[in-house]
Design goal:
mainly alpha
Length: 99
Amino acid sequence: MWLKLSFVYGIPESELRKRLTSRDLTKLIAADNCGLIPDPWTETGMICATIANVNRGERTKPYDPEQFIPRRIRESEASDAKLMQGFEARKRLLHGDEL
């Protein structure tokens, strides 16, 4: 999350960690979960795939935006999603299905 915020706001990660309070970070995570903070890797992948698809040959298979996102980023996001699913499952166990 810190790296993503660093890209979006153009502020070094170390500086963000100093500036943001826990409450600020919680609000940003909630905004990100609602899709309000753009993902720079996804946007970059879409741009690269568009350029590659416009310039590809007729027999070449279309490119997917994920092909232009570094593997370590994709794996990191996948592990973050699994972690959030675990948190949601724990909340449901503690509070019932009211959430």
